[in-house]
Amino acid sequence: MRIEKNVSERKGKQYSDWKKNRRRQRRVSPVQILYETCKQVFANCGPGVVPSAENIERLKAVLDSMVEADVGLSPNLPYFKSTTYDTPPTITYLHLHECDKFSIGIFCLPPSAVIPLHDHPGMTVFSKLLFGEMHIKSYDWADNLPAELTPNANSLDNGVEADSTGLRLAKVKVNSAFRAPCKTSILYPSDGGNMHCFTARTACAVLDVLGPPYCDPEGRHCQYYYDFPLANISVPEEQRGCDYAWLKEREKPEDLTVVGALYKGPKIVK
């Protein structure tokens, strides 16, 4: 009888532990899962080091499944409303986490808000549109084209005055509108559209993961660009059908206003 009782007690304890684990699993928030996945994916990465294809897919799968409710957002919050009509809308940034390996944050854009063309030096970036509609235009450097290609006044066809110094040729990677729900966008240090511009067609929220994050002391600062689209350019046969532009570095636009706000969604346990 004693043996049978011990077996019964052990089974009862095992079942109780199983139920506790199940309850704990159900309580883990999507944000916590995202954080834990990022810790694993970027553990052995650094500037210019891209996670393995398997880890890219792991993190992408987590982000693909996330919606605005997972981070405590909804389109009717004040972040997503334009308060002035004579200046560009203010963009709000919600900080979730940052360490030397990666950062997690959310950009909240009212209708017509623009995050100007900028780069991500040495970074792998995941961007998930949580809700709304957004136009994305992105570029990669076109360094493999003939060296004799040089900009001139006739090639700058967008009406903006600029001299030909400091211009660098880039190839359009993406030039499309995206509406949530949609898959996560991924860009790499030298591919996938490392320079991009976001334009909100409606109120929208973008969940961003950067690995590693920006860091001025380490030379990873956010550089902004003018772009001068090209109507005609002679390129090798395999490059035809692509759009190109001259990009030129610029200071941070004076009319760009990004303010920080307290993230009020599910907390990250570190």
Automatic annotation (TrEMBL):
Basic and acidic residues bias: start-end ranges: 1-19
GO terms for biological process, alphabetical: detection of hypoxia
Stored InterPro entries: PCO/ADO, RmlC-like_jellyroll, RmlC_Cupin_sf
EC number(s) reported in the record: 1.13.11.20
Keyword annotations from UniProtKB, A to Z: Iron, Metal-binding, Oxidoreductase
Domain of life: Eukaryota
Reaction equation(s) it catalyzes: L-cysteine + O2 = 3-sulfino-L-alanine + H(+)
Protein name per UniProt: cysteine dioxygenase
Organism of derivation: Nicotiana tabacum (Common tobacco)
